[in-house]
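Exercise 3.2. Students should predict the tertiary structure of the chain below and write it as structure tokens, then compare their answer with the key that follows.

Predict this chain's 3D structure.
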Amino acid sequence: MWSRRWVWMLPALLAAGQLLAWPGAPLLTGSRPPAAAIAAVLAITAAAAVALLWRRSSPVAAAVVANAALTAGSWGLPEDALSVIALADLIALFSVAARRPARVALLVAAALSAAQSVVFLTDGSRELSLAVEIALTVTVYLIVLAAGRRHARWRAERAAAAERFALAEQRRARAAEIERLRLTQELHDVTAHHLTSIVVAATAAQSFAPRPGDAPVCSEQSGPERDASDDASVCSEQSGLVAETLDQAARTGRTTLEALRRLVAIMQTPAPPALPALVASFRDAGQPVTLTAPAGPLPDAVPAIAREALTNALRYAPGTPTRVTVTATPAGAERATPSGAERATPAGAEQATPTGLELTVENDPPGAPPAGPSIGGGNGITGMRERARSAGGDLDAGPLPGGGWRVRATLPAPVSAAARPARPWSAHVIDAILIAGVMAVPAAAAWAFNAEEGLDVPGGAALMAAIVAIHALPLALRRTRPWTTLAAVAVTGACWTATIWAGLLPAASGWIPIAAIGADLLAVHAVGRYGRRSRVDWLALPAGVLPAGLSIALAFAAEPPAEPDQPSQLVMVVLFTALFAGLLAVPLGAAWLTGWLVRRRRARITGNEDEWMAWSAHHASVAASAERARIAEGLGEAVLRHTEGMIGAAERGSLDATVAEARAALAAMRDLLRDLRTAEAPVKAQPTLADLPALADKWRSHGREVTLRVTGTGGEQTVGGYRLVELLLAADTGPAELDVRADGDPIQITIRPAPDDPDGEIAAGLRARDGRIEDVTGGWEIQLRLEAGQGRWWA
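Answer key:
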């Protein structure tokens, strides 16, 4: 988005165009307009143009001033004297609709319409009827109002996407720390408690166990008052206590070791491939698997759980049809357990996200039991459940009522830039305004015809109103079914012709379909804007031009020729069709091209946002995986080894060795937890362009030749510029020459030589920030457009 200092560009161009059109054109052709008229036009142009300078900060005031100036110029000036600067009224209204609440925009639009109606009432030289002119004005204002509200929603969506992107960047920066904290808590809760209980119980049992060379404790407790049977009972109880302690230590140790091994296995498991590639690999292995999943990034837990579930299906039901389904679910929605019972989220329970994902893996019952002994370890479901819970979800697994097996996991939905915030001013309201505006013009034309010519046909007015409504109502489907809308508009457009040829309407009303061409314009625009078949969407232009031209031509040629020497109706239809089709091709082509350009631009922006979000999520996953691998290595080096030694000592009946190994395992666990807690780093402020010299020094310290020149600072929050330079330097290891010019907008970054980008990370970063790259001598020149006062690049 252009900086605020370019806000004068549009008013300046508008004023220059006005002065060129009038009084410039008359003066160039030798005509000399009155000096008073020239002075009035100059004053009105200056007032309207200056008012537009505040269209962003004070759009309502700008609209009032611009409209007042134009209204004052409506009396005493030539008709076309303000033809160009008159657009200031619409530009100011658009700014009001885009930057102020809907209620304010409606009030301003109503006020402008009332002011313009007053001008029409006092203008005795108008060519069209008062109703037609007011209807045209209201329609134009409504269309501008709708466009402005649509732009306001688009800006809100981009701002929300920028916030989600900033949140994803924070998560990426803290991914390792968050994963470390989570695993620290899990290790403390799951394993440290078990190891502590073993140490306490075994240490207590040591006080009853005899030491080497000492008499049994039970013998020391005997005396004159105790007989032999009592001594034997005491010795038996003490021996039983020691044996029970050793057995408990062995059982608890095995449980702890199993939990640690599962945790290590999960932490050491590499990130699974994308879900479609994973399903394809199982198809190659002979398992018929079908996949139903939404487009876009999925949490890492989804392919990880799907891999384990498909492995179990291949192991226990080889060759049976298997279905993998991923669906979006509303928060708090009821979900069924494998047995079919419904389970709802408790009232008041907190939800991780407003919506979630549900992964279901189902397989049919096997035709025959698998041959050979089971090769499973029995921990697959437990591992999948732990994976789901570590991602903030849950998992159920069990047999299906009719046979087979089902695994169902519910997970939080990933943060995505594709999510669009809801707005009170919905698209349906905008469509209603457009439909009303499209209906107003032909309705006003029909009313004027009825008032001036009169309708001799009974019910003619009602018939005209019905045709107007039928022709415009299909536009309600233009966003979801643009081709259906275009076909319906083309078919209903022939209703005028059919009624005229059938004698239900007079032939003199054949010009009214021209006033209804707004529906055709919006229908063709809808195909360009919302069509999903990019290769054939251009056919909307001939599909809109030819039926509309033919319909209008048939309406004009409905009356038979009055003289024998006049062309026949067929010839008139052909000539009129060619004429009207040629005339309509320009506005309909412009409507389609406008929609196509908007769709292409918005698809590029949203695609870049989603691509950058996926890139950020991927790197966050990589950082978390690296932290899990580091912790798993620490567990394997000390804790697992001592836990295995403790189990072996307990099984051998060596209490002292059991205590020693348990204490060593607990000490190793505590050391690991202490290291993890002390490794926590405070969240640092994000670097900006002012930190680029430190980045260059870091590369120079590794022996790399880096030349850096920075002009300006670009603001305090230019995080994206720093990250892009960081990405450019990381893409290569050779000498680099960087010239960063941050004293203007856009920011310019020149790097020589051009770095390699085999993985497309630099290209993704540029597209996410709406950056532009050009090849220069020996390198690249990159331009980043920075919105004033913010550190984000969004269109």
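Discussion points: The longest strand covers residues 322-330. The chain has a mean pLDDT of 76.
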